[in-house]
């Protein structure tokens, strides 16, 4: 973001006060900040009391060996019991947990907490039958169907950490995740519905499993679309055969508070995705408390809807664990946001709390307000945003058009690593500013610092850091403690470096400015420039590649690639660009396909051989190219620009 747009942002002077009734009845009020400041650990201990524990903890936080935190030490609990059984035991078994909406019209299912408990218990028994034991990892590669929630909770019940891989990732990406966490069982479905058609998933699993030697023992397959699938009798098991007939009684074990709950792979600054490890007690405390706090959830009356796919952390924390631990009634939708379909669902189910990403909001803005205006969305009372900075125009449009100018918008900043929301307005307390995520939540300590780790102070920009441990923080990277330390804790002593730039305004409120490392944010999805570069150079015709995230009106950033072809490839032929885009989709997934690929004769490099992506970004964003004096060969940029102007 340029300084110019930044100062425009910071002079944004619209303020939106919380609605009076929301303020009065808010779950969390202003005093929470002081209470948490006075005794952070007591504050989080109180949040943990909202859960059901087997054994209560002896110690709230063990930070004696930073950066390796232990929360609620000595405590035991079961995440699936907290998400399901305890609501049934409290007499809420008939309450709807999931209003599931399939993509095909009229394909819906309402699932109560009692039904969910039975399904989770059956699936836990079925997985046990397949040899899954506490501590074993289970990979999940599924569409947005209720069985994915059941599968996750069944794993949690057994203490078998799951690793959910987004259904849009390729077989190769799935294979590398299965291998990294050594999963012996994969849960998938024949396919899912996307944009009106059945799209297959099982073939990608077959391909991935074939790449992992004899690691995978069983593949458990849900029948969703009914499409034909290849079948390996010695390995593949239908969900309806294994789960439907299993007993609905399952005695859950209480797991240690620090027992691994799941591993979620996310892009980092190198080619290899990082396996973010979350554990049980702290994670469930952090997600359920913030879900109740930030969305002001009233479980008796609210209908909550988070549009995120379960393959990302938002789906884990704010569709599965947080809301279910809170006994919420929620909507789960299988499809993508086609025109009016979302608003039809809001109207049909009288959704009260709605949580989505800026990229979706900007897409709806482009389509025009006539579409949402055609639906009755008066049930809504609170709106949330996550995944990337929300620009003030999108914020105000969201508030006015979707929220009828009465719903507060909570812009929530957090990461796969943080597990829980960290920076956000409190809807009953904070006067929202369009474009700002405002302040660290009670119990969270954030700051903006300069290169020497000094607080920049109000009115200045720098790097966002977190200063104190928090319950849902990642515990390490799966199998790689050293990389965990190097990535997040090595830049400055005792500070967690988030990888985001931020600015404090004159009131001390935080404005997120996007990543300062080689991570891109495309439609709220994290992608690594290095990972896409490695995918490109793995193509036989490519000698070198550089990837940048260029500003894009709808998707926030878009992937732009510059490639040098091998001499043997000649000019690569007419279809080289399409061929390379397909190759990236195969290596990583369709979401990583570059929007633009330019075949260039050279890449701009410093004398030490480092690619100057900043200059490529100037080209991709059609700007005057910046300072080239540190280039080894300053004429390179002219060659690239010539290429650009001759491009179709
Ligand atoms: C970005 C998604 C600005 C940020 C929950 C972060 C945001 C990365 C916001 C994490 C926000 C997320 N405002 N930027 N409200 N929320 N980000 O791991 O760059 O997929 O580091 O977690 O998304 O992405 P991740």
UniProtKB/TrEMBL annotation:
Q: Which UniProt keywords apply?
A: Acetylation, ATP-binding, Ligase, Magnesium, Metal-binding, Nucleotide-binding
After translation, how is this protein modified?
Acetylated. Deacetylation by the SIR2-homolog deacetylase activates the enzyme.
Q: Which residues bind CoA?
A: 194-197, 314, 523
- Positions of the AMP-dependent synthetase/ligase domain: 90-470
List residues modified as N6-acetyllysine.
Answer: 610
Where Mg(2+) is bound, by residue?
537, 539, 542
Domain of life, source organism = Bacteria
Gene Ontology CC terms = cytosol
Catalytic reactions on record: acetate + ATP + CoA = acetyl-CoA + AMP + diphosphate
- At which positions is ATP bound? 387-389, 411-416, 500, 515, 526
* Domain Acetyl-coenzyme A synthetase N-terminal intervals: 31-83
Enzyme Commission code: 6.2.1.1
Annotated AMP-binding enzyme C-terminal domain ranges read 531-610
**Cofactor(s) this protein cannot do without:** Mg(2+)
Q: Which GO terms describe its biological process?
A: acetyl-CoA biosynthetic process from acetate
Q: Does the keyword Acetylation apply?
A: yes
Q: Which InterPro entries match?
A: Ac_CoA_lig, ACAS_N, AMP-bd_C, AMP-bd_C_sf, AMP-binding_CS, AMP-dep_synth/lig_dom, ANL_N_sf
What molecular function does GO assign, one term?
AMP binding
Q: Which family does it belong to?
A: Belongs to the ATP-dependent AMP-binding enzyme family.
Function comment: Catalyzes the conversion of acetate into acetyl-CoA (AcCoA), an essential intermediate at the junction of anabolic and catabolic pathways. AcsA undergoes a two-step reaction. In the first half reaction, AcsA combines acetate with ATP to form acetyl-adenylate (AcAMP) intermediate. In the second half reaction, it can then transfer the acetyl group from AcAMP to the sulfhydryl group of CoA, forming the product AcCoA.
- Name of the featured protein: Acetyl-coenzyme A synthetase
- As recorded in Swiss-Prot or TrEMBL, the protein's gene is named acsA
């Amino acid at each position: 973001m340029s300084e110019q747009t930044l100062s425009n942002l910071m002079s944004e002077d619209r303020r939106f006060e919380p609605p009076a009734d929301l303020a009065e009845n808010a779950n969390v009020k202003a005093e929470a900040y002081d209470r948490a400041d006075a005794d952070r650990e007591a504050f989080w201990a109180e949040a943990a009391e909202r859960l059901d524990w087997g054994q209560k903890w002896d110690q709230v936080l063990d930070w004696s060996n930073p950066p390796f935190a232990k929360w609620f030490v000595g405590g035991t609990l079961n995440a699936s019991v907290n998400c399901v059984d305890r609501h049934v035991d409290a007499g809420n078994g008939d309450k709807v947990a999931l209003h599931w909406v399939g993509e095909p019209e009229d394909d819906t299912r309402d699932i109560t907490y009692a039904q969910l408990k039975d399904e989770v218990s059956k699936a836990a028994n079925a997985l046990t039958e397949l040899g899954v034991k506490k501590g074993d990892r289970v990979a999940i590669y599924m569409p947005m169907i209720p069985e994915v929630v059941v599968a996750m909770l069944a794993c949690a019940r057994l203490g078998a950490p799951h690793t959910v891989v987004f259904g849009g990732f390729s077989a190769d990406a799935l294979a590398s995740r299965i291998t990294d966490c050594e999963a012996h069982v994969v849960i998938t479905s024949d396919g899912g519905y996307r944009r009106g058609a059945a799209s297959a998933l099982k073939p990608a699993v077959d391909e991935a499993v074939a790449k992992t030697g004899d690691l995978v023992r069983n593949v458990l397959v849900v029948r969703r679309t009914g499409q034909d699938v290849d079948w390996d009798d010695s390995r593949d098991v239908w969900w309806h055969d294994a789960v439907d007939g299993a007993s609905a009684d399952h005695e859950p074990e209480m797991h240690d508070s620090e027992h691994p709950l799941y591993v979620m792979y996310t892009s980092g600054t190198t080619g290899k995705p990082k396996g973010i490890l979350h554990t049980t007690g702290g994670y469930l405390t952090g997600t359920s408390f913030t879900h109740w706090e930030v969305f002001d959830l009233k479980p008796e009356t609210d209908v909550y809807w988070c549009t995120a796919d379960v393959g990302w952390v938002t789906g884990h924390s704010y569709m599965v664990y947080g809301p279910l631990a809170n006994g919420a009634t929620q909507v789960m939708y299988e499809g993508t946001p086609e025109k009016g379909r979302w608003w039809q669902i809001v109207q049909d189910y009288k959704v009260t709390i709605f949580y989505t990403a800026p990229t979706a909001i900007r897409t709806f803005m482009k389509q025009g307000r006539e579409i949402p205006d055609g639906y009755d969305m008066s049930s809504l009372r609170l709106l949330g945003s996550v995944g990337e900075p929300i620009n003030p125009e999108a914020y105000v449009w969201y508030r006015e058009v979707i929220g009828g100018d009465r719903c507060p918008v909570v812009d929530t900043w957090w990461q796969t690593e943080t597990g829980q929301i960290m920076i956000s307005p409190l809807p009953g307390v904070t006067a929202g500013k369009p474009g700002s995520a405002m302040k660290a939540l009670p119990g969270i300590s954030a700051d903006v610092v300069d290169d020497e780790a000094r607080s920049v102070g109000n009115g200045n920009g720098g790097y966002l850091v977190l200063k104190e441990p928090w319950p849902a923080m990642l515990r390490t990277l799966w199998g790689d403690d050293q990389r965990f330390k190097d990535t997040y804790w090595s830049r400055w002593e005792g500070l967690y470096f988030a990888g985001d730039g931020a600015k404090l305004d004159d009131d001390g409120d935080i404005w997120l400015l996007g990543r300062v490392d080689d991570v891109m944010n495309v439609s709220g999805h994290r992608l690594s420039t290095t990972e896409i570069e490695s995918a490109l150079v793995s193509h036989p015709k490519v000698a070198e590649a550089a990837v940048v995230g260029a500003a894009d009106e709808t998707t926030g950033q878009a992937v732009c690639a510059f490639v040098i072809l091998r001499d043997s490839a000649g000019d690569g032929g007419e279809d080289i660009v399409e061929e390379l885009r397909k190759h990236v989709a195969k290596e990583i997934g369709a979401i990583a396909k570059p929007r633009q690929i330019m075949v260039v004769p050279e890449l701009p490099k410093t004398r030490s051989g480092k690619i100057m992506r900043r200059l490529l970004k100037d080209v991709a964003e059609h700007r005057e190219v910046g300072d080239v004096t540190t280039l080894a060969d300053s004429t390179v940029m002219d060659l690239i620009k010539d290429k650009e102007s001759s491009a179709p």
